[in-house]
Fold this protein.
Amino acid sequence: MENDQETVEVEKIRTSEDGSEPYNVIIIGAGAAGVGVAISLMHAGVEDFLLVDREEIGASFAAWPEETRFITPSFPSNSIGMLDLNSIAIGVSPAFNMRVEHPTGKQYAEHLQGLAAYFELPVCERMEIKSIEKNDEVFKLKTGSVTLQSKNVIWAAGEYQYPSLNIFEGSELCRHTSTVPKYGDLEGDDFLIIGGYESGIDAAYHLAKSNKQVRVFDINNPWGEESSDPSVALSTYSFERITDTMFEENVELFSETMISSVTFEDGTYEVTTQDGQVFKSKVQPLLASGFEGSHKFVSHLFEEREDKFLSLTERDESTIVPGMYLCGPSVRHDGHIFCFIYKYRQRFGIVAQAIAESLDIPTDEFIAAYKGWGMYLDDLSCCGQECLTC
Ligand SMILES: Cc1cc2nc3c(=O)[nH]c(=O)nc-3n(C[C@H](O)[C@H](O)[C@H](O)COP(=O)(O)OP(=O)(O)OC[C@H]3O[C@@H](n4cnc5c(N)ncnc54)[C@H](O)[C@@H]3O)c2cc1C
């Protein structure tokens, strides 16, 4: 796939200021979710949409620490009708495209850029949406300088650029793993990592491979979870890493250990647990506390669930503002978590269908094709932990 994406020039964007017609759809965020749902809209026959990103296509993936790789494997299984686990579109296989089983973030960002170019998606990069309101049936999306208008909006702005930072006293003294360009470049020998799910274990693994001493704390027991759902327990990839000799030699895991504060005095960090244990290091502790997510920026357009995720209709549309959709890892239905690509991609077709039908575009063939590829999950009753589709 050629990586020669031509983005839409800002001057060619239709704005409210020049009195032009609203778009049918504007998608905010050109990550895996935004690019994937854009391709689904195209497949569903929806025209006149725009995909905007405040940085570049795949910017979050490109910002991963250099050593971090996908935990979900890619495999060119499309030939037997099983979509590659890391694919965001029918007919696409990252494994075939990149010849890599566990791509790095940078490789995957390039893959997304290649897809946007191949499908000739109308993408406008370096355009940040600062606010969204709906007036007179039309959404107004303000950047710093212009207002875009659209009949429908899909929020796909992701989580990675919105880390969880303020979680206990002194947490601002720690460094979030999402700000680390390369674990191999971190100075010091004695690392304290707060958070022991995928990012924490990933950080511990790479540091251990550089022969650093690492202690990992988690309030739960991620490496002891019985669940088969990788949204709940560690992935197989991480379990394998835990058994690596250098991990076993260099990493100490503390489960059910809640950190209550971090202090820094005389060049030493002190990490205190809720039950009064104190761990010291001269190295800045790493925070692998996960992500708040971007959905809070559009929470005024949705009802909120008790857990602060957004209430969605069966079509991933706002229950209070028609035409406002959510796509990507923040999608929740009851207890179902759609935080991996192979999970949330199954909702692209649902959103594309809803928008196509609102524009009187027939969708029968589209739905049949998406169902055939496992890209259309409308029956959530099947999704228990051991369910093969979820
Ligand atoms: C370390 C790590 C490892 C992971 N490994 C896997 C894995 O192996 N398999 C898997 O399936 N998932 C994995 N995930 C999860 C996966 O990365 C996310 O599900 C995915 O990045 C989400 O894609 P997205 O498109 O929703 O968000 P993003 O990729 O973050 O894209 C959102 C885009 O929105 C843009 N944006 C944000 N705000 C605005 C705004 N206001 N205006 C305009 N643009 C905006 C951003 O610039 C960004 O490009 C991993 C995540 C992490 C952090």
Notes: The pocket of flavin-adenine dinucleotide is lined by residues 28-34, 52-55, 59-61, 64, 68, 70-72, 128-129, 156-158, 160-161, 198-199, 294, 328-329, 339-342 (CB under 6 Å). The chain has two domains: 10-161+292-382, 171-287.
